[in-house]
Amino acid sequence: MDKHKTRKKPKLTGRSRLQNMFKRVNKEMYAKNLELAETNQTLFLLRNIDNLVLESHEELGSLCQKIAEEVVKHTNFGAIGILASPVDTNKLFLYGFENSFDIEISRTKLSLELTLHKGWIVGPEKIALIDLEKITHAQLEDQFDYHATYICEIVKKLPIKSAIAIKLIARRRIVGIVIVGFPIPVSELSEKQRSAVERTSEAIGVAIDNKLLYDENQMVLKRMLNTNKKLRELDETKDEFISMASHQLRTPLTSVKGYMSMVLEGDAGKLSKQQENLLNQAFVSSQRMVYLIADLLNVSRLKTGKFVIDAHPADLSEMVEGEIAQLKETAKLKKIEIKYDKPKKLPKLMLDETKVRQVIMNFADNAIYYTPTGGHINIEVKEDDGHIYFTVKDDGLGVPKEDQKHLFTKFFRAGNAKKARPDGTGLGLFMAKKVVDAQEGNILFESTEGKGSMFGFSFSKKKLAVPDS
Amino acid sequence: MDIYAKIVAKIIEQQESIMGPIAIEQAKRVSQLKVDWPEHKVDLTGDPQAAVDKLVEQYKELFGQIAVETCRDAVQTMLASLPKEQIPSTLK
User: Fold this and answer.
1) Distance (Å, rounded) from C-alpha A405 to C-alpha A411?
2) Residue range A288-328, pLDDT digits in tens
């Protein structure tokens, strides 16, 4: 027999080979499943943190505590502390704290003043590994000021030997710090554990920042609402004043106008030419004040909801004739010819006669004012295409092209109009449009600077037809 | 549940999340354990440390050392509250 015969390995049977293969496959599958399970766990935790932020209307403090509880429940972290910095402060407050050892820890109002801080918190490093077995009270004081004693107590009570601290940075500021404690020394912390802490901290950082953004928005909204409220109150006060002042002014002005009219008609005796001239000018000015007050009153009624169309059957051609008659003296003073061919027969329309008269007066008065001495004004009322048209054409200043689109807006006055008539309010045309629009009419306007303008309106005969009684 | 029963329950829970119901079947094969998993109730008979070791070995037999490490990670915080001599040997 050969003594040096080497011992051969026993041949593996087919069955054992199969068993070995199964074992290998099992291990590989286990490893893959473990990866998946960890990923699932992380995703589940991150989703829960997101949901806490989305569904919570609680204060930042309560939110952080809930997040801390959720993290401890779904990870193998020994303990977690979440510090956050609320809006408009440079302080970090310990809002969330939880541990997995079922050890009761009293919460304290731990806060850190960031602007006064030195050390890691304000340094460039984002992550710090803390060896709790070796850290001294002095080192803790460096980071946590007078709270070092409290932190020492926590470290003594809980069986944690190491911690990972991560700064949460958003919009270039520290919005929080997460500190996770482990029951194993720093040297035994695995890469997996560090990654888990980083990932979780990222989600917590986003959650805190979202909450802070929401809080900031709420603050801004509150300020805006307060400001709006004050502005509305101021606006109402202003409107009430305008309404009151207009009412108070109207009565004495009507008297002034009335008495002047009587004197001009000779009720107090014959007037000299000079007296007549002077009184005419005073009368025209008082008339303007009456229109101004009427416009102010209407504007204030618009705001207070008292602007109501009181429609009755009215003859537009008669209304125009009546208003023009009041302007004869004014036109005469400027040697302006007003041409108006009153149409013979025009159907009546359901109109707010008072307000429409004001519009007619406004257009005609403007035409006289902005037409130079010796100019011409042509006023027309006609029926065409199912509508009734009223137009005032002049050969006056015209409106600059760049001003035309703003002309009917509140308080707007064209540049050349401001020069010609500095005391205008910019309310006449605004109110004219309101009155016409409220009766489903259309404003008509054309103008060429230096040549003249056409202002007017049209109403639908059908829409404003007088109902059969 | 005492600490060892909690440790066993946590290990089974963690293994279940990785391998599914097989984890519970494997746990039931450990003679020192009485597992009522719908209630998440676990009772240990005999030496509790040995019972935990047996369970961990069961998983190791099927899935190797990685299963042991997973068991250890799952109960890390619970082990921290035990004195060294009371920690089951497979989890040290």
Assistant:
1) 13
2) 787 778 777 777 777 766 778 889 999 999 999 999 988 88
φ, ψ for residue A402, nearest 5 deg: -70, -15
User: Of A274, A438, A413, A424, which Cα lies nearest the Cα of A355?
Assistant: A438
User: Looking at beta carbons, which residues of chain A come within 8 Å of B74?
Assistant: 76
Amino acid A281 reads Q
Could you tell me if B62 lies within 8 Å of chain A, comparing CB atoms? Answer: yes
CA atoms of A434 and A359, how far apart (whole Å):
10
Kindly report the nearest CA distance between residue A158 and chain B, in angstroms: 9
Instruction: Report B:29-48 residues touching A (Cβ under 8 A).
Output: none
DSSP sequence for A67-89: HHHHHHHHS--SEEEEEE--TT-
Model confidence pLDDT, tens digit, residues A214-238: 888 888 999 999 999 999 888 888 8
Any idea what the Cα angle at residue A141 is, between residues A136 and A143, rounded to 5°?
105
Size of chain B, expressed as the number of residues it contains: 92
List the domains of chain A with CATH numbers: 33-219 (3.30.450.40), 270-460 (3.30.565.10)
Checking if the pLDDT of A1 tops 50, the result is no
User: How many angstroms away from the CA of A44 is the closest CA of chain B?
Assistant: 13
- Residue pointed to by tokens 């109009």: A417
pTM of the full predicted structure? Answer: 0.58
Residue B70: exposure state from Cβ atoms within 10 A (0-12, 13-18, ≥19): buried
Task: Please check whether residue A387 is in contact with residue A346, taking contact to mean a CB–CB distance below 8 angstroms.
Answer: no
How buried is residue A194: exposed, middle or buried, by Cβ count under 10 Å (0-12/13-18/19+)? middle
Query: Mapping DSSP to helix (H, G, I), strand (E, B) and coil, where does residue A459 land?
Result: strand
More confident residue, B78 or A417: B78
Output the six-digit token pair for A338. Answer: 């007003």
**Closest of A358, A288, A284, A350 to residue A320, by C-alpha:** A358
Q: Does the beta carbon of B1 lie under 8 angstroms from any beta carbon of chain A? A: no
Residue A131 Cα distances to A72, A155, A193, angstroms: 21, 11, 15
Instruction: Report, as an integer, the average pLDDT of A179-193.
Output: 90
| B23, closest residue in chain A (CA to CA) | A30
Residue A34 is nearest to which of B18, B80, B81, comparing CB atoms?
Answer: B18
Using an 8 Å Cβ cutoff, are A381 and A320 in contact? Answer: yes
Please provide the average confidence, as pLDDT, over all residues in chain A: 86
Q: pLDDT confidence of A6, banded at 50, 70, 90?
A: low
Q: Find out whether A302 and A432 touch, Cβ atoms under 8 Å.
A: no
Q: Is the confidence metric ipTM above 0.90 for this complex?
A: no
